[in-house]
Write a structure and sequence with these properties.
This protein is an alpha+beta fold and 323 residues long. It is 30% helix and 25% strand. The chain has a single domain (1-87, 100-323), classed as Rossmann fold, CATH 3.40.50. Helix 3 runs antiparallel to helix 4, helix 3 (121-133) packs parallel to helix 8 and helix 5 (178-190) runs parallel beside helix 6. The longest helix has 16 residues, at 3-18.
């Protein structure tokens, strides 16, 4: 584990203790990879199969274990390429193994309720509520809010009314500790098996965190959880936060949006919802690789039209034993 990750790991433990939550360890022996395929006009390319892709890690070909598209149930990819339905056992559900079916997406919404969000608070809340209502029926959603501390307003649920009720309990005020709270959100999301994403809705500035954005980014990269950021600030008004948002989203396979108006925020949420519904998700167990540093992931298309398509995917990760 790198020094940066070791520091971040200690901060996770300290933050968890401060919020009376138990620390945990996750053994990473499987890679979950979500990505989108688009054409030159940005239109999603659907209907591709496992045989259409090749996954490389540091140039080493990897064998796809499971394959899914959108919110449909994934399939297991046999050694001969045969596709088989996944039937999770009770034990796999408890332990969160790969055979647990990744049906839908676990969506964690992290909503800025600091003083910075005070003016646009009501409009932001409405935009988030509309997004939650429009999620696919197979998706689960959790609503977290942050100012100086993280609040878990609604735990992961399929019930949209419960999530929105939790959202409506939020009250604006206090300092902003975005990176502290994003780290804790990553910690929670890492415990959930299957596909997950974090959506940060923020005004931008952070004036109360103990952790550096670079440490949070390192953990986010290695967890492989796409982070989407919607900032209500203008991209040039807070260039430091803007660059951090762009970097974290890009390095995790997500996207960043700068949406000052309510209409732009609604459009950003719609874009994210389309991404979730048009993503491919694969899992694989890495082949032997002596590289204990950053491992580069490459997704290649083997179809004749491959050169016309663009793949949005996180660039890689660092292997580690847990935090």
């Amino acid at each position: 584990m790198t020094t940066r990750l070791a520091v971040a790991s200690g901060l996770v433990a300290a933050l968890a203790l401060a919020q009376d939550r138990p620390t945990f360890r996750v053994k990473v022996d499987m890679v979950v990879l979500s990505f989108q395929v688009t054409d030159s006009k940005g239109r999603y390319i659907n209907g591709l199969k496992p045989k259409d892709f090749r996954i490389l890690e540091d140039g080493i070909p990897e064998k796809i274990a499971t394959f899914g598209e959108g919110s449909r149930p994934p399939v297991q990819v046999a050694a001969d390429g045969t596709l088989r339905p996944i039937i999770p056992s009770e034990e796999s559900r408890t332990e969160g193994r790969v055979v647990d079916a990744f049906i839908g997406t676990n969506v964690f919404v992290l909503f800025d309720t600091s003083n910075y969000m005070y003016r646009g608070f009501v409009y932001a809340s409405d935009a988030i509520a509309d997004f939650i209502r429009g999620l696919d029926r197979a998706d689960s959603v959790a609503v977290y809010t942050y100012s100086k501390n993280l609040k878990r307003e609604a735990p992961l649920t399929h019930e949209r009314t419960d999530a929105i009720f939790g959202l409506r309990q939020a009250v604006a005020g206090d300092d902003s500790a975005l990176y502290n709270c994003l780290l804790l959100t990553l910690r929670d999301a890492a415990k959930v098996p299957g596909r997950k994403v974090i959506i940060v809705f923020s005004n931008g500035p952070d004036n109360a965190s103990m952790v550096a954005p670079s440490d949070v980014q390192a953990v986010a990269e290695d967890e492989g959880i796409p982070i989407y950021v919607i900032s209500t600030n203008e991209v040039n008004k807070d260039p430091i936060s803007s660059q951090v948002f762009k970097r974290i989203s890009q390095r995790t396979g997500g996207k960043s949006y700068f949406a000052k108006t309510w209409q732009k925020q609604v459009e950003a949420f719609e874009s994210i919802r389309e991404d979730l519904g048009n993503s491919y998700t694969v899992t694989y167990y890495p082949q032997p690789n002596p590289n204990e540093g950053f491992r580069k992931i490459t997704v290649e298309l083997l179809t004749d039209a491959a050169k016309k398509y663009r793949i949005q995917c996180r660039p890689g990760y660092r292997p580690r034993g847990g935090f």
